[in-house]
């Protein structure tokens, strides 16, 4: 076999391969023997049909199998001979069979990027302090009190004032049309809402809106105009006025529960305030350990990535970008961001996803190269353990999880995730940790 390597941009390379006739014939003989051994033909027992008859009957299938095996074996041999770090086989083209049954073809492969590994013997990392302070506990208690806050009506009844919580019905028009009809990207909440809660501040809901509600009494309806700010992110709206018709339905005050044993009992039955503080401290300590571990792991990857500049496979960057973009869109949709707003910010979202994809891929390639250098491997037991964890998470049997992963060709991806995780564990034993300033 003869193979010539032609490097290409974007981590691609061509392998021009020639396979001798005798090697092709050897493969053809082995494939034919296999068909003869198992072929079932009328009038013959399995494996007893004449060779010539089997060759004639299965000529097309034999040639397809020979071609598949010859090209596949030749690619693997050429990759090994050239010492290439191949991520995947992109294409096989220009296949030419000669009269003597030799074959030559061109295989395009996607390669891991080439770069010099930085020194990873003593990586500096900044991580949060392990200490849980009284302030940390107090902030958690404040959060619990905030969740338990009540909003009774203002007593005695009075007109709405700034810093109150009010409940309103409203309709908004621009030039006689509902805001979202005139400007679809603005969204329906600017046009109409019922039983809408607002904390009365200068910037709440729409600048100037709350100032026009000051002095209203429950049951009163008021109409007013507010100017659209110059920095409002919907083209054509800045400088216009929105005409609002507002009916005040409630004026509320905010009342947090007192910080005492009764409050602690409402959070955790049977616990005093001091016991609740102790439990919170323990929970915060566990959370802090996770934060520190996450900071170390991300810090290692960020440090190594900052020391490496390399080309990345375009196809993989594009694929990873699409995956990250899907996650960003789903997260924003869950937060209530409209499709119109997402579309308007599409360019920014795609840019952010692309940057994240490049950083993630580069980090992975660096970790894989370190794993290769340090001879870090994934055992079958470790792979089975990861798949078992996935099966439990998705409430599947182990065998069904394996079949799902095989269907998606994802086994190698899982193996890679385990390998990069092991490599990170190895690197974490070499870091120098500095505690972040409070």
How is the CATH topology of the largest domain named? Trigger factor, domain 2
In total, the number of strands is 11
The coarse overall form would be elongated
**From the alpha-carbon coordinates, what is the Rg to the nearest angstrom?**
34 Å
Which runs of at least 5 residues are low in confidence (pLDDT < 50)? none
Class derived from helix and strand content? alpha+beta
Let me know the CATH homologous superfamily of the largest domain. Answer: Trigger factor, C-terminal domain
Put simply, the count of helices is 13
The CATH architecture of the largest domain can be named as: Orthogonal Bundle
Order of helices and strands: EEHHHEEEHEEHEEEHHHHHHHHE
- Count of separate structural domains: 3
Report the span from N to C terminus. 64 Å
Mean pLDDT: 91
Query: For this structure, what is the CATH class of the largest domain?
Result: Mainly Alpha
- Give a short account of the largest sheet: 5 strands, antiparallel
Helix content: 40-55%
The proportion of residues in beta strands is 15-25%
Can you offer a commentary on this structure?
There is one protein chain. This protein has about 450 residues and is an alpha+beta fold. The protein has three domains: about 1-110, 2-Layer Sandwich (Alpha-Beta Plaits), CATH 3.30.70.1050; about 150-250, Chitinase A, domain 3, CATH 3.10.50; about 285-435, Trigger factor, C-terminal domain (Trigger factor, domain 2, Orthogonal Bundle), CATH 1.10.3120.10. It contains 13 helices and eleven strands. The strands form three sheets. Strands 6, 7, 8, 9 and 10 form a five-stranded antiparallel beta sheet that branches. Strands 1-2-4-3 form a four-stranded antiparallel beta sheet. Strand 3 and strand 4 form a beta hairpin. Helix 7 (about 275-305) packs across helix 13. The chain is elongated and about 105 Å long.
